[in-house]
Write a structure and sequence with these properties.
By secondary structure, the chain is mainly beta. It is about 10% helix and about 55% strand. The model has no long low-confidence stretch (mean pLDDT about 90).
């Protein structure tokens, strides 16, 4: 699997069901959300700005994409959690690289993660932050079904703060009117 193939397979509108375990609070959470993943042109000004912020040349950007999400949790049913970020892969080999994010997963600050693909085609992303480290694993069951496992670890990597599993189903494209 290459980053280009992975991003191309991920483009679309997804319906996600995630179960999460917050080990610090000993709480279990169910989250239903929508995730919209769209391709972004490498010539987009935001791509150039994100590359520059992290010290990369925009020519190194491969298959940038935008991700937006909106979800409801059973932990706080009155609150809708939503957000978005720009993601720019920078390949270091056919199966490894860096992923530049305008907003991180564990902390809402710009971040750079390290990714690689396993022999089975699983995407693995590890991102270190000031107070935590996030590890995400994403793989496809079919073209329209993907799975995601996420761990948030303590900053030294010795403890797990949260763990979650999501199954995500791509929604059919809407017909043009």
């Amino acid at each position: 699997m290459t980053i280009e193939t992975f991003v191309a397979q991920s483009i679309g509108a997804w319906r996600s069901q995630r179960s999460g375990h917050n080990l610090a609070f000993q709480h279990f959470e169910e989250v239903l959300s929508t995730i919209d993943i769209t391709a972004v042109d490498t010539g987009d000004a935001a791509v150039a700005e994100l590359c520059q912020t992290h010290g990369f040349d925009v020519d190194q950007a491969i298959a940038p994409f935008h991700m937006a999400w909106s979800g409801e949790s059973d932990w706080d049913e009155d609150e809708v959690v939503s957000g978005s970020c720009l993601l720019v892969p920078v390949s270091t080999s056919p199966t490894t690289g860096k992923l530049l994010r305008s907003q991180g997963y564990a902390e809402t600050i710009p971040a750079v993660g390290e990714y690689h693909f396993t022999e089975e085609g699983m995407f693995v992303l590890v991102t270190s932050y000031d107070r935590a480290a996030a590890e995400e694993r994403i793989w496809f069951g079919t073209d329209n079904l993907r799975f995601r496992v996420s761990l948030i670890r303590t900053s030294d990597g010795t403890g797990v703060v949260t763990a979650s599993f999501a199954s995500e189903i791509r929604q059919p494209a809407k017909a043009a009117d």
